[in-house]
Task: structure prediction
Amino acid sequence: MDNMDLDLRSIQEARDLCKYGSAAAERIAKYSEDQIDKILQNMVRVAEEHAAELAQMAVEETGFGKVQDKIYKNHGASTLVYNYIKDMKTQGIISEDPVNKMFEVADPVGLIMGIIPSTNPTSTVIYKSLIAVKARNAIVFSPHPSALKCTSRAARLMAQAAVDAGAPSDTIGCLSMCTMQATNELMHNDAIKLIIATGGPGMVKAAYSAGKPAIGVGAGNSPSYIERTADVKKAVSNIIASKTFDNGTICASEQSIIVEECNHDAVVAELKAQGAYFMNPDEVKKVCSVLFKNGHTMNAKYVGRSAKVIADGAGISVPDNTTVLIGAQSGVGEGNLLSYEKLTCVLGFYVVRDWHEACELSMKLLQNGIGHTMNLHTQDEKIVREFAVKPASRILVNTGGSMGGTGLSTGLAPAFTLGCGTMGGSSVSENVTPLHLINKKTVCYGIKDAVTLASDDPTFHVCADASAKSQTCSSIPATPISYSTGCNSCGCDAQSPASFVRNPMAAAHAACVAGTQTVSEDIDSRKMASSDEGINLEQLKDMINGLVNAMKGE
Result:
């Protein structure tokens, strides 16, 4: 009965948060830029004042990460985010095009639901609060159950700071009773206009299934390739700094290191010099046995833990100053568990002959975190260009993944929600900013006469007499395009555009048909004019209808 009462009370709380949050969203939508900036500045001030307190709470409650690093994450989520967004145009006219007589107007989306992860709870609350308010929206948070206290504390601090600076009450809200029923109620409540989901794959999938706009992020599995021209000492320093930052809880952190045969010894020596411990095959098995459960799902007990804690849990002996645990892998997928995402101080290790093999391996590794992030260390700009085609929304060069992906050490927008694009099942591929939390309305004046649009268009040529099948427009070239009888393979009979689109098998031979000028004598004159006559209007209509039907799958 107690559980049932909790479920019911949590659902009612969710409904109340939506009701009052929606009213707050309507009010803050009318605020001026100066009013919004005053609110943001006070939120940043309060976040900085409580950065250490919130970091301590997060580590004590979740067991993940390091206090000092979480303090900096709170700083990044407040001061650095504010400095990036403070001059961003998010209301009124945000862009103008005088040549085409157009301008864009920003409108808030309304009440937002923010799903908060356990790995970065307080920093994500601060960040999402700031970008929501900057766009003149209200937001209500759904905490992770294992980070309820610190998430609620951060939300209350942001809410009170906003109200103290003039924001409407309930601009920022947070569930205090963490149940799946309450989260589900928020997701499906009509008052929620947009969901920003940062968390596990299940929660992100649920957000996208809620029947309303959502911004979700997928898992990361960033490979870090140390190419032969790289500054090895600097590359290793960046990787170690990134992987040990908050004990690897940021999803953009490195998950595997790829080296070449020619720089293998130098990289290994430098990794060892910086505290990395290379496990033997037996030690890799022991670590994987405690690190993963149910296949390659990571054991929450070892998320965001130090290398020493993980080693002790696995029953292997490592020096106290060990920074990361590294295990050699022979492939990707089952049987190579370190090829999967590990939000902790453990890395997979691979050796390749050259950048071509590194490309292939990176593609395989990224399939387990597609669309998120990849890391590259090189002095060769050509290599950077080659890797720019990889299926990752952030391809970071000569920096640490944790800091680079979140915009702390790169020119990317400072953010704690990192889009993975359609590759990773996300609606955005950028680091999420206030510009993702507005509606853009376009005001545009007529610049062409709608009455005489066709006749005034110099690029539009159609015969005036539709009944004259043999009549051609004067703009058709003297030597008209003609068509072959097909490519003589797979039953393709692509004789004309019309017959081409009617035959689905012919679609694969478009290049063959388009690249020939041979005319067949047995072409049906109803379907196509002779090479002297070109194409008449009836045939043009036939072509268009065929193309439309083909696109419809008819």
Q: What stands out?
A: The domain at 222-411 is CATH 3.40.309.10 (Aldehyde Dehydrogenase; Chain A, domain 2).
